[in-house]
Amino acid sequence: MGKPTGFLEHTRSPIPDRAPLDRIKDWNEIHEDFQEQKLKQQGARCMDCGTPYCHTGMTLSNMASGCPINNLIPEWNDLVYQDKWRDALDRLHKTNNFPEFTGRVCPAPCEGSCVLGVIEPPVTIKSIECSIIDKGFQEGWVSPNPPKARSGKKVAVVGSGPAGLAAADQLNKAGHSVTVYERADRIGGLLVYGIPNMKLDKKFVQRRVDLLTEEGIEFVVSTEIGKDLPAKKLVDDFDSVVLCCGATKPRDLPVEGRELNGVHFAMEFLTKNTQGLLELKDITAFETAAKGKDAVIIGGGDTGTDCVGTSIRHGCKSVTQLEIMPRPPEERAADNPWPEWPKVYKMDYGQEEAKEIFGSDPRHYLTATKKFIGDADGNLKSLLIHEIEWKQENGRFTPAEVPGSEREIPAQVAFLAMGFLGPEDAIADELSLDRDSRSNIQSEYGKFTTNLEGVFSAGDMRRGQSLVVWAINEGRAVARECDRFLMGETSLP
Prior knowledge:
The chain is α/β, with parallel strands linked by helices. It has helices at residues 6-9, 20-23, 36-44, 73-81, 85-95, 99-105, 109-112, 125-138, 162-173, 190-193, 202-214, 231-237, 266-280, 302-314, 349-358, 426-431, 460-463, 468-487, and strands spanning 58-60, 63-65, 154-158, 177-181, 218-220, 240-243, 249-250, 263-265, 294-298, 318-323, 363-365, 367-374, 380-393, 396-401, 407-410, 413-416, 420-422, 455-457.
């Protein structure tokens, strides 16, 4: 695929990010516009490797290796190199309903398993993917394509995140009448309120929602199933119900001082920020939560990074990110071989911005919070933190406090970004759905059936907190099984 000698002639060059000191002045996406000629050169770097791992979608060491939706990556890399962008778009849409989302927010496990990556920096797969779909919309190649006939079957999809939207899109393509219920005031789930605008501009989400609406999908917002509308009513009124409600129960930190003003869950912070941006169009028009404050983010994942970047745009006085895990190595460790996801040190956009402003990476590794300290008025003023070391006991690693490592750091606002425990309980309790040991809805991958006939579950609600690309994978797969249930057979991929 691509040019046989392309990987020898061209170096890796992804779509560049805007300079940190420039991009923190606004809420626009951090990336610059793509240039077709440069992307063609990057497509040329895709090797005719014979056995491409980039689209395998395997799970190695409990992490994705290759693309979980099996994108036909070598094919559309080659088509971009040949300047056949329309054909590349067609190949991309064969496996991915929403490449404009994955091309922006996916961590790109495909690049981690790129064969070229064994000896050279991998192909810029994510940049090429994003450019293909953006060009497709620019050229008018992406247009409504409603089904030619309807099946007469009605399906309710609960939740409008990537899993719910993918399921709805596929079921609509099969000819079913699909209604999507969302408790928030906008369609998109975590794509809208869980991911900041500088990573995924909400206009791209709305653009896709508008397209799905034109294709015949009905969207109902501000309606929480199990509260505003009984889940049993959906079971009674629809031929099938697909639950894609996400894993939205946040992990708390029950230490002294948790009740102080200024201690928030990360998603609460990010949601309110995006709501303000969408409603007021100008983020400076409303009072910002971190402005002029020492901000501490507890958690080192993507959500924590988003809190760092958001706090900086608010104009925080300082930002500190606490990470309980050790600092990753600069290069792959011996127990992290290719094609596993490379567990190496890197700075994401938020850390890059913090370093540019404050002089260093804001992350403090192997560090935990012992106590939130407040003032006389019940407001957070500082954190008592300590270093930890991981000790193996009874075959399990547990964190232990390093004696004498306690110290106090200033903080007038703290955001808990420590992941999620599972789905909320209302729907599962009302329908008496079986749960697994982690409180997720019990339904086998590949079948997605619950213990209630006609009710399916997919996405984070079923598998636990995961990637957007895994949500799309499960949304497509649950649609196939739901279609089989309704029609006795299915032609969905």
